[in-house]
Amino acid sequence: SQYVYRFGGGVSDGGAGDKNLLGGKGANLAEMASIGLPVPPGFTISTEMCDRYYREGERIPDDVRDEIAGGIAHIEAVVGKRFGDPADPLLVSVRSGARVSMPGMMDTVLNLGLNDETVAGLAATSGDERFAWDSYRRFIQMYADVVMGVDHGLFEEALEIAKEDKGVHLDTDLDAEDWRRLVGRYKEIVAEELGRDFPTDPHDQLWGAIGAVFGSWQSERAKVYRRLNDIPGDWGTAVNVQAMVFGNLGETSATGVAFTRDPSTGERAYYGEYLINAQGEDVVAGIRTPQYLTRAAREKAGAKAASMEEALPEVYGQLAQVFETLERHYRDMQDIEFTVERGKLWMLQTRSGKRTAKAALKVAVDMANEGLITREEAVLRVDPAALDQLLHPTLDPAAPREVIAKGLHASPGAACGKAVFDADTAEKWAEGGEKVILVRVETSPEDIHGMHAAQGILTARGGMTSHAAVVARGMGRPCVSGAGGLSIDYRAGLMRIGAREVKQGDVITLDGSTGEVMLGEVPTVQPELVGDFGALMAWADAMRRLSIRANAETPADCRTAREFGAEGIGLCRTEHMFFDAERIANVRQMILAPDEAGRRAALDKLLPAQRDDFAEIFRIMAGLPVTIRLLDPPLHEFLPHQEEEFAEVARASGLAVETLRARAQDLAESNPMLGHRGCRLGITYPEIYEMQTRAIFEAAVAVAGEGGEAPIPEVMVPLVATKAELAIIKALIERTAEAVFAETGKRIDYLVGTMIELPRAALRAGEIADEAEFFSFGTNDLTQTTLGVSRDDAGRFLGIYVDKGIFARDPFVSIDVEGVGELIRLAAERGRATRPAIKLGICGEHGGDPASIAFCESVGLDYVSASPYRVPIARLAAAQAAL
Ligand code: ADP
Ligand code: MG
Ligand code: MG
Q1: What would the DSSP string read from start to end of 772-825?
Q2: 190 and 320 in one domain?
Q3: Which of these, 764, 761, 820, lies nearest to 789 by C-alpha position?
Q4: What is the ipTM of this complex?
Q5: Are 258 and 293 in contact (CB under 8 A)?
Q6: Hey, which of 40, 220, 614, 832 has its CA 20 to 30 A from 420?
Q7: What is the distance between the alpha carbons of residues 843 and 354, in angstroms, rounded to a whole number?
Q8: Ligand 1 pocket test: which of 100, 108, 145, 354 has the largest number of ligand atoms within 8 Å of its C-beta?
Q9: From ligand 1's centre to the CA of 211, what distance in Å?
Q10: Of 775, 337, 304, 793, nearest in space to 570 by CA
Q11: Catalytic residue at 843?
Q12: 108 touches ligand 1 (CB under 6 Å)
């Protein structure tokens, strides 16, 4: 089969559709070449070779070597230079490129093909001796670092010494002779470190670099990144070999990166950075401070250095045209790398640009309004999980803030936590429950785990496209980058800003939307849910079939849920209402009472409070369904712990403390999750459910009489395993409801149903539906009972299970479709067979997980219920599932 795909010079063996085979970079290089954009010629070695590389002893087989030679010949023919030709050498870059861009992969090697002979040819043909030797030393440094594993610090040190010896500060102060001498020194460093010479044969260099790209697929860094991002290990990477173009050939040469729209706000304005007389990674590496692409951005930032629009107006004009072509062609915002060689523009990369949630939303809505994409596409383009960033609080603009530093607004949102200065500490402290802000001079792929653990990221160096900025936006972490006034002392574990010192553990706040860094904690405010957010949500609502409800029991949560668009309550957990400081005494008295009479006396005191709770919820949820779950947890969860608490119950009940203690001991269970809980409480102590039911109906009747829309209570019985259990409790509920209707002379509509959270209930759903008017799948317990895994104890092994691929994802986060999902599917079918109009929903944690929501859509449930903050996520995910 074919492993090498050419591009450039009028040829494109692949295209944008070949990302799996060619990786993102390779597929888009071929695509750009095919639509006539200026792309230096090259070829891509496919991801299939990556697999073969590992299968065949980590080497490149001979047949593929031949194909690669053909690829080199293609480049030679287009460029008119020969690889290894001492008079006029072709130089290439070797670039990795997986399906998705992936930190942890081998860094690019530029200027490959240089040696002591070809460097002379490069000097002669370019007419620039200094450029040739500068390119050569860059090549040795990059190649030795990424291919041969020599610590790059050694080269930097040698460069510093060279500058010191000459008494200069800048790289640009070194001349051809200085670079030539450094090349000699660099080669010595390689020999000293490795005991072998730097490879001089361009072909050896090429095989080394290609092998290193494939080899980096299994590097620890790459593996960590794949694990954090759910990227399968068998995808493999492609390798791109491409003719070099030079941005370091003087004042009419440059290199840069750009976005076709602002990746932070989504605004329709080109955004980018560039450097004159520089090569490749200089822009992102933070060696020199990059300049703005557009004049408007430069003026806004108050920067002096000329923008590309001003310094190179003609090429800038061409670039702007390329932006338009690419956006129209890809119908999405693009993230672009380009180089200008002596006034000629070359495109080196394009991909759909990573963006903040805010930008994703704005770009999607704008593009739909511009007619570039449809509304359906707009809805599909926004990652529901990313909405989370928009729903969470931002800093209160009115709150006082002590700004101690300012950097770039690299990734929006507010973050507050203790400053830490290395990734390992960030991870350790976060595991211990601390909120941390990771502070670094700049970040690299080795810091990913710490960035993940941190609330936010602060760097002293680096632009909007630096590693920290790009990764933070992808992760949804607020980030301030390039805070210039900051000096970080890793050894002392502190940073200095002017005369001020911030030590490890001191609390700081970041505003990733303004770039401000503040001392201490700054209060936050709720986001506004209008504008682009409102527009996209309205489109999504029109496209979805599933209803979205919320899990909520406090009035505050119910209000939040409604603001976020909940269409009812799918789970109101009544036990949460029992922990209130005033009520807990009565709850304890009820539990510890030795007989029914004692329990009833205590329940009578609880009734008015429960009634008020429900009335408040019904008012907020006027006209919408409210599913109320009767008491579920084991009673001992409410028991007193301290001496004083026992004494209080003794006083209130008139019972002796010893009696109460003995009763408390009676209630202890060895496996409470499978013990005396759920409807088993209602069967054994019917008076508890009777009181709750009475409170529900008295409240409902009262609120219905207030003139607003009548509430629709759905009384839900937990942990049912058999039809008989539900029949007994349903009779009790109906009796109580009728009693209330008779007493008040008013009647309201209501439903009685059950949770399906035990495998037996799912299996016997057909007969349970004789009694149940609705099923609500309690997927937390259903997952525990189906897998035989206790959620509270799963932490010890679940991570390893996911690592080993036993579970694709944590089954408590995303429904185990094959197991738990099978039970849900079956219960839904059997329930519907008995009662076609039965209402079906889910109320576990999974109700806010997009993949689980897609599953619920596929089984045809009526609604999903999620925590209030996840309601918008669920609305969008439900629309995507329906499309
Ligand atoms: P990454 O995925 O880390 O961005 P790239 O392969 O895109 O790595 O390359 C890193 C840098 O080198 C980029 O700035 C890119 O534009 C530049 N570069 C890559 N290949 C060439 C080339 N053939 N000529 C000039 N610059 C190149
Ligand atoms: Mg790189
Ligand atoms: Mg790149």
Answers
A1: -SEEEE-HHHHHHHHHT--GGGTHHHHHHHHHTTSSSS-TTTS--TTTHHHHHH
A2: no
A3: 820
A4: 0.97
A5: yes
A6: 220
A7: 33
A8: 108
A9: 18
A10: 775
A11: yes
A12: yes
Q: Which ligand is nearest to the CA of 255?
A: 1
Pocket test for ligand 1, best of 349, 354, 465 (most atoms within 8 A of CB): 349
Question: Which among 253, 257, 135, 149 is positioned nearest to 194, based on CA atoms?
Answer: 149
Q: pLDDT digit string (tens) for 94-141?
A: 999 999 888 778 889 999 999 999 999 999 999 999 999 999 999 999
CB atoms within 10 A of CB 687: 17
Task: Give the integer Cα–Cα distance in Å for 293 and 310.
Answer: 9
Structural domain range at position 305: 254-355
Comparing CA positions, the residue from 773, 761, 765, 729 lying closest to residue 627 is 773
Q: Whose CA is nearest to atom 27 of ligand 1?
A: 280
349 lines ligand 1 (CB under 6 A): yes
Choose, from 479, 558, 572, 843, the residue flagged as catalytic: 843
Claim to verify: residue 496 and residue 571 sit in the same structural domain: no
Q: Establish whether residue 242 lines the binding site of ligand 1, counting it when its CB lies within 6 angstroms of any ligand atom.
A: yes
Supply the residue whose CA is at minimum distance from atom 19 of ligand 1: 93
Is 467 among the residues known to form the active site?
yes
pLDDT digits (tens, 9 = 90+) for 360-416: 999 999 999 999 999 999 999 999 988 877 876 688 878 888 899 999 888 888 999
Q: Are residues 43 and 143 in the same domain?
A: yes
Which of 145, 11, 159 has its CA nearest to residue 77? 11
CA-closest candidate to residue 409, choices 478, 313, 338:
478
Residues 225 and 279 in one domain: no
Give the C-alpha separation, 601 to 332, whole Å.
Answer: 67
Residue 135: count of CB within 10 angstroms of its CB: 24
Could you give the 3-state DSSP secondary structure of residue 328?
Answer: helix
- Pocket of ligand 1 contains residue 90 by CB under 6 Å: no
Q: Residues comprising the binding site for substrate?
A: 573, 629, 757, 778-781
Asked whether the beta carbons of 689 and 590 are under 8 A apart, the reply is no
H/E element holding 589?
Answer: helix 581-592
The count of domains in the chain is: 4
Same domain, yes or no, for 650 and 578? yes
Tokens for 113, please give them.
Answer: 């093909």
The partner residues of 440 in beta bridges, in order of sequence, read 459
